[in-house]
Records
---
Amino acid sequence: MLAQLDLLIGSTYRPHHRGAEEVRDARSHRPPATPDPAGADHPRTEAAPGLAAGAAASAVPRDRRGPPRTADARGRRARRTNVQSAYDWLHRFNATGFRSFEAVSNPRGRIPIITGKQIRELVDVALSDPAERGLPFTTWTVRTLTEYCRERGLIPGFTNEWVRRLLRREGLTAQRIRTWKTSTDPDFDPKGGASAPSTRSARPRSSVICFDEWGPLELRPIGGTAWARRGHPVRMRATYTRRLGTETFLGFYDVHADVLAGVFRKKKGVREVGEAFRRLRACYPHRRLFVVLDNLRAVHDNPRFLRLLARLRIAPVFTPTEASWLNLIEPHFGVLKRATLVGSDDREHVVRRYRIYRALRLRHRKLGNAAHPLTKIRMIKPVKLDWH
């Protein structure tokens, strides 16, 4: 077998040397001699026929041979390495047979750079408070997190970008810290429990309405985000005066019909809110109404306003103190603000009022409830009641 391999390698493995044939080609394609400033030609060096390949190549001037050809040398070394590998495999076959070819060199695969345990420790450190670990920081940055884990041997010598990618792969991203509210109302549970069932499912021949005031809305530039070319941001005025007063949007949201409507008024007193509720009753003349609203001091808890609700056959459902998130109209006000107020600079209330009404009509057309009675609250005549 060794003799056959030697014969095979001897017939195929022929080191490539630049012999006399290449030298002759170099001579035939040699550029014409360039005269020197003195007028004499450069001397020509002819290679003797008996010179070896290396000597013949060195006989050609360097300016005509070009740069040294290191790629050929690397190729020769690679071929010698392949021949040695073939001999190694042949000896291994003679010793063990085909078992050497069937065995896997590394059955467990490549050794992992970082283990699952190290990743879990990295996530635990990222989710912890730096003050608990004796550091004078309030939050982790990628740099401080990497340095802390490196010093304690929790991770290998990763860069900050590697650590950031590992955290992102585990579902951790740098986010803004959000706030949350706590209600100080001692009757939070009874009030919160009363508002939850009323908005979960509609009762027969009844409707659940959420009411809240949005405002006061003043005429001033309201910043935001906008698409623009790099280096050319959208700008708005920074100096302004507010001489036209404010407005308040008295909004009603039908929970089960998903309809948002309302009216604009200069104030949000008992008279203005009462007039809006009389319009609401005109939109639902033959249905029982449950209205979820907050306990706005001096307005919603006013005895005069409560008597009006009783005469209109409207059952108020008050949310707990400092628990406005229980009112389902609140998130809709946020969406409406981002769509119609962010990035605006209105000079008149009529312009903004018209834009908000158009946005509400577009919303109802997309949802297919443009014919709902609550959408006519601006045009309908309020129920007439005598004030006592």
Note: The beta strands are 206-218, 246-254, 259-265, 288-293, 314-318.
---
Amino acid sequence: MKNKKTPLQNIKDEKGIKKFMDNPKRITPPQKEQDRINMKELKEQKARLKQINELKPQYDKKARARFLAYKYIKIPKGFMCVICNEELAKERHHKDYSRALEVELVCKKCHRILDKIKQDEDIIV
């Protein structure tokens, strides 16, 4: 009878190590807790992205327009609202989201009124 080597004895020589490392069925150590947390966060991010992709394309247009306006159009200090001319302008209002850099600099009160008017027009049309 031949003396059979145990798996640990096979690993000791270089060929055995290569076989062991190349074997996809080899036993891997359990995942660390941090890896489990990262996988959970990754799944949550994928779920959020899926929800965003399912939203109306109009949402993307609005978000892009808002981002561009915020990035490139700064509101000067002391600039008054173009509608009421009573309060400082603190917000940017888009009449048309396809024209991202065409905005009116308005106060919060006037911005709410303009948005309500725009929303009512969308319902009628």
Note: Residues 57-124 form one domain.
---
Amino acid sequence: MYKEEFPYTNFEGETVVEEVYFNLTKMELAENLDLREEFLALQTKLQGDKRELTEPEIMEVLALLKRLVRLSYGKKDGKKFLKTDEAFAEFQGSGAHDEFMYSFFKDPEKLLKFLNATFPQDLLEEAQKQADEKTHTIDELIEMSQEEFDRVAGTDPTKWSKEQMLAAFKRKSAA
């Protein structure tokens, strides 16, 4: 569950603090399987060197973000997390919605935090495990940051594959 508390200016010009909650269940994700394909296609398109996004790319990111926010927004009520059209309409009609959505443009790293906290943790862990098990070429291993290399290969050289060992040697000799 993603929780954020932030100040915003309401329509009366007053500064108020809003606390918002977002969460996606496994069933909600199952009912929206196309989200995964949308996300992966967008991720593939945006991979590579850091650069300015084009206007169409910004619109794609925004459309996906709006959909995720709509699917995941709710209100806590004791031990329950309630999602209703009325609750979302109330949020969307407030300055809080505008401030929350705009905050992703002010802090692009926030989107990753939002996704990691909103999606079911066991699904994220399984996806990470599958990604880590992906076979990387020696060149990919050489080009990775040290942090990513350690995550993929681990820090115990006795458990490295032949490719990981060779890449580690080449990384060391290039430094």
Note: Residues 98 and 119 are 22 Å apart (CA to CA).
